[in-house]
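re: the backbone from monday

yeah here it is again, tokenized this time
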């Protein structure tokens, strides 16, 4: 006789196993650190993210110097991650040299999470840990991330990293956790406080002016005005992901 209780038992066991893993991952976050903690200097506004806004970033590669890594350094400093050259090190943003062998054309290109409107990482995440805010910023809720790394496989930009080691010296506004996945957040605490991402600020401070941040939905914003006068492209536009990061000069 077929035992009809077996499927339910198996389901219950899978459910317990899932929540056991999720609980262990949540505990990997630094004690006392939550995903809504912010530094006092970057306290968010009371307004919730709105679909009326679509935050975006325009990178003028003609102004990006190959020797300059100010954007990478600023991101690392603000968000508390370090890349020491090991394969497992995080890289929320990285400089990539692109070239055309047939012409010799070459550009230095900062690459990070592209904050896609149709984000593959969000589509494949089994727990909802990868999610997109109403204003287009793609984030990871590390409390429910189970470290399956499906999002890393789905991302065509290799923009996410897996935390494989214990962490120390975390920033209260950028909680990280062993066994979870992370990536560029567009410095969301700064954005919510009315500031620009750390990489954009550092680029301007160096005098390069290669990065413009703003609201893609606002025709009067600097980023929309720049896009109206200068051609820009999306990385892997053929995938039709509608990225929030655009590149000029490629």
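seq for it, each position gets an aa:
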């Amino acid at each position: 006789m077929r035992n009809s209780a077996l499927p339910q038992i198996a389901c219950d066991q899978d459910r317990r196993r899932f929540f056991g893993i999720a609980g262990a991952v949540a505990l990997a976050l630094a004690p006392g650190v939550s995903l809504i903690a912010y530094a006092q200097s970057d306290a968010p506004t009371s307004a919730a993210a709105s679909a009326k806004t679509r935050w975006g970033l325009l990178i003028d590669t003609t102004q990006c110097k190959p020797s300059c890594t100010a954007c990478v350094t600023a991101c690392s400093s603000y968000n508390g991650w370090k890349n020491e050259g090991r394969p497992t090190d995080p890289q929320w943003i990285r400089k990539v040299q692109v070239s055309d062998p047939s012409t010799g054309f070459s550009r230095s290109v900062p690459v990070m999470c592209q904050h896609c409107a149709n984000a593959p990482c969000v589509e494949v995440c089994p727990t909802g840990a990868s999610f997109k805010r109403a204003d287009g910023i793609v984030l990871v809720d590390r409390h429910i991330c189970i470290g399956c790394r499906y999002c890393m496989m789905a991302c065509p930009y290799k923009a996410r990293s897996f935390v494989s080691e214990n962490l120390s010296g975390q920033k209260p506004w950028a909680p990280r956790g062993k066994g979870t996945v992370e990536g560029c957040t567009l410095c969301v605490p700064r954005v919510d406080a009315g500031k620009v991402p750390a990489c954009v600020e550092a680029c301007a401070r160096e005098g390069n002016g290669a990065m413009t941040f703003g609201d893609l939905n606002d025709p009067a914003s600097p980023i929309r005005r720049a896009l109206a006068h200068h051609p820009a492209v999306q990385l892997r536009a053929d995938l039709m992901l509608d990225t929030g990061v655009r590149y000029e000069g490629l």
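The chain has one domain: 5-248. The chain has seven helices and ten strands.
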